[in-house]
Amino acid sequence: MFSFILTSSTLLRAIGLLGLGSALVACQSTPKQEEPTAPVVQVAPAPVELTPQQKVISRLLAEADYCLSRNQLLNPIADNAHDRYRSVLLMEPENERAKLGLQAIALRFVDQAQTAAKRGNLSEANTMIKYAKSIDNNAVVQDAANSLRKQLVNIPPAKAYVAGEGEIVLDAKMLQAKDPQLTTQLTGVAQKAKQTDQFVLIIARTDADGRWVYQQLRNAVPGYLVRGDIRIGSPARVKLVKTLD
User: Fold this and answer.
1) How far apart are CA 230 and CA 201, in angstroms?
2) What DSSP state is assigned to residue 167?
3) Are residues 177 and 139 in the same domain?
4) Are 59 and 145 part of one and the same domain?
5) 3-class SS at 239?
6) Using an 8 Å Cβ cutoff, are 174 and 235 in contact?
7) Distance in angstroms (rounded) separating the CA atoms of residues 60 and 101
8) Are residue 138 and residue 192 in the same domain, yes or no?
9) Which domain holds residue 179?
């Protein structure tokens, strides 16, 4: 038989080795904890303060877009899309929104010219082309105008409209210019409508023209409600009728 005798120094060394082994095992078994990451806070950029001129431009563009949506292209005076877009370009010549607005107005007149040409109204078609070119004579408008001119060559002139009973044809140029002479003519219609208690049927090229005619009729007979209706058509005219169809 063999016997082992441990000296005190050997025993201490063994205990030390056991302690070191336990410490190593403990280090390996304990997972390393990551430091918590601070949340990222996004700071919204400060709002940009508009200059007084930029505020005016923003207001004019909004009003111009509204007028364009109502087809108030050149009229009423001082309350139309064209004047407002032009005002913006005087303050900011490179404003793209104003440039596009003028192009949209010009194309509206091209559309009106094409509609007039289909009806055989060559004079009105040519007038609408002139309006378009005076507002924004860009390549698109030029191409449309040239194409329309080719169409006009083959379209026979329209026959003169013959007014029916109780019907008054309104001069297109006077209506476009809101001529005071036309107001005088409409006053007579309004007074007759009041005397006979008849409806007034208004036929106009645009809704805006029709509304202007109706407003003149209302102004001509204060205190009396002129009953009437507006329909889109040409030539512009008013007609007294007993009932509206």
Assistant:
1) 6
2) E
3) no
4) yes
5) strand
6) no
7) 12
8) no
9) 167-241
Q: Is residue 177 located within the same domain as residue 143? A: no
Query: Could you tell me the two tokens for 114?
Result: 């094409």
Omega cis (within 30) before 76? yes
| R_g of the chain, CA atoms, integer Å | 41
| Total number of domains constituting the chain | 2
Instruction: Read off the tokens for 174.
Output: 């006077």
d(CA 208, CA 73): 10
Of 106, 129, 153, the residue that ends a domain is 153
Indicate whether 234 belongs to any domain: yes
Task: Please write the tens of the pLDDT for every residue from 73-89.
Answer: 988 877 899 999 999 99
The answer to the question of residue 162 being in a domain is: no
DSSP secondary structure of 215-233: HHHHHHSTT----EEEEE-
pLDDT > 90 fraction of the chain, expressed in percent and rounded: 31
Enter the pTM of the model.
0.48
pLDDT tens by residue, 43-80 = 666 677 889 999 999 999 999 999 999 999 988 877 89
Q: Name the band, by pLDDT with cuts 50, 70 and 90, for residue 207.
A: confident
Within a domain: 106: yes
Residues with Cβ within 8 Å of residue 82, at least 6 apart in sequence: 73, 74, 102, 105, 135
Same domain, 114 and 171: no
Residue at 205 is within a domain:
yes
Residues 142 and 174 in one domain: no
Q: How far does the chain reach from its first CA to its final CA, in angstroms?
A: 135
Paired tokens of 88:
């913006």
